[in-house]
Amino acid sequence: MKRNLLLSMLLAATLAACSSNVVKEKPAAPVVDSNAAQTQSNVSNANANDAASTSPASQADSSGNPLKDPNNILSKRSIYFDFDKDQVKPEYVPLVEAHAKYLVANPNVKVVLQGNADNRGSREYNLSLGQRRSVAVKKAVNLLGVQDKQIETVSYGEEKAHDCKDEACYQQDRRVDIVYEND
Amino acid sequence: MPVFARAELTVEVVGGGAQQIPIAIVPFAAPAGSAQPQQDNITNVIGADLRMSGLFRVLETRGVASQPHALAEVKYSDWISIQAQALTIGTIEALPANRLKVSFRLLDVLKQNQLLAMEFTITQAQQRATAHKIADIIYEKLTGEKGVFSTRITYVNKENGRYSLQVADADGFNAQTVVSSKEPLISPSWSPDGTRLAYVSFEKKKPVIFVQSLVSGQRIVLANFKGNNSAPAWSPDGTKLAIVLTYSANSQVYVINSDGTGLQQISFSSGIDTEPEWSPDGAFIYFTSNRGGGPQIYRMPASGGEAKRITFEGSYNVSPHVSTDGKLLTFIKQTPAGFKVAVQDLMSGQVQTLGDTTQDESPSFAPNGRMILYATHVGGRGLLAAVSVDGRVKQRLKDSGGDVREPSWGSAINQ
Considering the domain B151-413, what is its CATH architecture? Predict the structure, then answer.
């Protein structure tokens, strides 16, 4: 049990280390040009193989659902962003990769990536910004081999934001939530 | 079916213009026994409208010795003594079949002559509308500009966890619910003739654009494509709307016919393009884009093509709206003091931030271009405010409890 947890943590860390370059190299522009698409599909294949070989390890903990294990990184579902930004920050790369790995190992599992923004500025711009954030997370997990059919992106803009007065509160609203179907 | 809302808006003038016209309005002679709620009294509504414009100082008339209703009863010296420059008098007479005849005169106190006289035959229910009409006539006669008291506004009210899209008179009274939902409603946009509203509803768990007739109440889905459907804006001729879709994953501007046919993409960028607004001549579309980094306002030909950047001051400028004469742009600008309504002279490029609030959103010009209506936050609640384009007159429109947002001022045509 303990060993399995340690192993999966190690694997997550290894995956994070080996694929962090890939994430950095993702095109800044959200519209994928043909070259980028080529790169993306190569990377996807490489990671799909990698994930396939490691999937037994991530599923070895048969005593419980890793999504529900509070000690498992998969229990963390939110990725936070800077103001007016849609780049996934380095500290959230391990979280994104862990979910990507789980989704690759469980190709029938589906997620909705819900993008949000804090309540400052315009509602329409924030709706678009929330969408960009959800798409940024989608692209990151796509690069790690998660299939399009497993992912839906949606934006709530600032419509679910709290009534904030300070940055500590605002930053809680600038996020993408990974919501598992039937969870 | 329209529902009358409990929460009606009231107006406070929190700042005054330097040169307000002092006007006295003598309560109109009313038929005996016509008890009426104070707020619906024709004379009160005229006074409130003129006060709301910020251009008039409405004088107290109760202490004045003479209370004229007819021209022959006017004693100009009484009105000179309270420093009135203009005087309004009138009568309301009961007619058969429950109708009313409203007569009024506008007098120049200094020149001691009549500026105009008019009468209206109306139903009981048309009293507020008639008062707004009279206020518009007085406003235009004394300022030389069109009044906006007979126009309407729309906004979204959030109360008890429900969102309702409302339409109200420009003074906030007579609010009616157009549609309500437990999911968010945003971005209402008036058709140029004032008969329809386009808006975004999340009722299908994602943003979808509807167009609803205010006459029949019927609505159509204008756009429900893959991804987000949002930010509708009518073309000046009412035949098309500019909308924003994330069909290609990224928010881009499209144009679609008002019946939902003929979709055409007109912006092609790798950034966010949103909040389209047509120029009054229909030739251009102003929009918000972060193609250069942060969000700024750009303009492109309405058929698509090269975009020209319009805003340069600051790193965050959003929500463009153009005045009906095409000369001014209002938008929201992030400043060190917060998010503020700004106005830019499109010829000179000069920018001024307006108002004393700091969480402003969704500005739109009054049809006469004098005021800008916008949403802001005060005390943790959304409310509507208006500010004159020169920043001198500030108003707060507040209701009795809801969280109000997403206002838009309709055209000069009142249905």
Answer: 6 Propeller (2.120)
